[in-house]
Task: inverse folding
């Protein structure tokens, strides 16, 4: 096992800079080289981490000696071409979500991954969350349904403004409909990932999406009804009419009780209906599944099994999201 795994980071905006901080705080994954089309973003990264090598192109970054993996944190547009470039060099790719809205490019990438055996994963942060493990235990395919039959799933999202304060410094793409932006791709995709991982593919039954009249700005509200694994799913997402900067709630309602996950799954509440007992300790589930996302990335680089979604799973999420965004 190599001492450190060397990381090249492409895209040094809000999320790329945050990842540099996370990498600096642990031992095994070492950021060594960076690239961004914006010189100011590179300058910010070098000011914070002077040991980084700044390259002058994506090609130069990918050719950096000794690199094990590339983390792609650009807006969605370049995700597929940059992944292909990294595959050409045999590097493991950890790509930000949403995977892409260019489905042909995604399918080409996925075919290559399968045919050539590339290592690739997408950063849906909830993949390593204790909340997802709880849901899989209670409602997943292998579960013995300790909460009884699942009756409904609700997903509620509310944002006082868009973009959210944490991403206020991101590029204009984030609020543009045709550049991969909007809250459905940016936030709802995380919850559709969880839904589909636990229940399988979702089918959109009905939906209503509101767009500003300018033809450019991303959606401002989305309501929808889906079916996943035979279970009705209701989605209610909106910008404005709410003081909360980044509110999210997923409610799984079953015959024997319900599980409510809020604050990006940071808060998990399991409520039992009378006469029902949960036979295991949620705290134990939480501890057992507290797997650091970076450890999963290491496993992916080393070709070991991991819980991160691959490109095909991320494409399936995006297919559902894009259906919801049809006017
Ligand atoms: N996993 C998560 O929890 C999470 C959270 C927020 C955002 N994201 C995703 O991360 C990605 C980046 O989001 P962000 O908020 O950092 O955006 P951002 O606009 O702040 O940063 C994007 C950076 O990419 C650079 N860039 C654009 N095209 C490039 C190219 N071809 N080559 C190199 N650099 C390029 C830009 O100059 C910019 O510095 C998006 O896909 C977004 O959806 C993920």
Result:
């Amino acid at each position: 096992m190599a001492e450190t795994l060397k990381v090249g980071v492409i895209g040094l905006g809000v999320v790329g800079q945050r990842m540099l901080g996370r990498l600096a705080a642990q031992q095994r994954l070492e950021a060594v080289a960076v690239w961004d089309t914006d010189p100011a973003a590179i300058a910010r990264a070098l000011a914070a981490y002077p040991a980084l090598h700044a390259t002058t192109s994506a090609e130069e970054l990918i050719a950096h000696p000794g690199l094990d993996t590339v983390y792609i944190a650009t807006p969605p547009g370049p995700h597929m071409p940059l992944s292909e470039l990294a595959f050409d060099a045999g590097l493991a790719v950890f790509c930000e979500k949403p995977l892409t809205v260019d489905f042909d490019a995604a399918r080409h990438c996925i075919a290559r991954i399968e045919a050539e055996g590339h290592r690739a994963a997408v950063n849906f942060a909830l993949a390593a969350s204790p909340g997802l493990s709880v849901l899989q235990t209670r409602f997943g395919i292998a579960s013995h349904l300790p909460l009884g039959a699942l009756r409904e799933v609700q997903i509620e999202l509310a944002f006082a403004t868009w973009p959210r304060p944490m991403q206020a410094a991101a590029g204009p793409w984030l609020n543009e409909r045709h550049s991969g932006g909007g809250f459905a791709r940016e936030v709802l995709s995380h919850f559709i990932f969880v839904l589909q991982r636990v229940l399988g593919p979702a089918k959109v039954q009905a939906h209503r999406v509101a767009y500003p009249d300018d033809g450019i700005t991303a959606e401002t509200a989305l309501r929808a009804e889906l079916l996943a694994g035979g279970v009705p799913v209701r989605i209610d997402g909106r910008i404005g009419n709410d003081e909360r900067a980044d509110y999210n709630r997923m409610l799984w309602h079953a015959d024997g009780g319900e599980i409510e996950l809020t604050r990006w799954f940071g808060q998990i509440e399991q409520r039992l209906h009378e006469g029902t007992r949960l036979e295991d300790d949620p705290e134990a589930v939480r501890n057992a599944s507290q797997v650091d996302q970076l450890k999963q990335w290491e496993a992916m680089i080393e070709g070991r099994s991991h819980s991160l979604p691959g490109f095909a799973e991320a494409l399936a999420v995006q297919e559902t999201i894009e259906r919801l965004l049809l006017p």
